[in-house]
Fold:
Amino acid sequence: MTCRFRPESQGHEPSQDITSMPTPTISPTPLRVGIDLIALRDVAASLGRFGVQYEERVFTAREIAYCRSSPGTVAVGRFAARFAAKEAAIKVLCPDQPGLDWRSIEVTREPDGSASLELHDDARALAARRGLSRFAISLSHDDEYATAIVVAQP
Amino acid sequence: MNDTGQLADGIRTVLRDHARLAIDPHSLDEQTDLYQAGLTSHASVNLMLALEDRFEIEFPERMLRRGAFSSIGAIRSAIEELTRVDA
Structure:
């Protein structure tokens, strides 16, 4: 994946007021967004072929415990949605080269059932370098596909 | 075929079976960017695990961070480093 990270100094500047009407303030905040879509059959195939080896190289212990708390296709959908979330987060973080540890990006559950993003180690350091500290995430899946979107700002 | 050629051939076989590229890996040269050739992030996980099985190795995080799967040559170098027996 290639991406281009535009630092704040190169963001959109407020436009000049050329009329008598008030000019709306356009924030130079570099809002970042990432999205990903994955087929459940691909994740099911990896789980079937590589099993625990796959789970433990990609997901944290908390993620595995949550996904495995439901059987069958529900578990596959949860794993797939979390993989999509990690990929969406990588698009936001825009690493200099491929190879961020998947487990450094973790989807956690809030008491109200909503999902949150926790960054660790390399991902956390990269977010700091990018000036990003606030993240929002949304996940969804059906019987065939899972998707996730991540939004970040300073 | 020398050892280097055999290793690259083995890598291409794993790529064929797990990377789901749009083109035959045996037609790729060693420096072709695999991500540009269609390697997805999810397929790269399968590729990593399949290479570990095939060559009985484990890729450490330091190798993953520097893009060990970006090309056949990069994969070959990583495997050679992991399987090197110092005299």
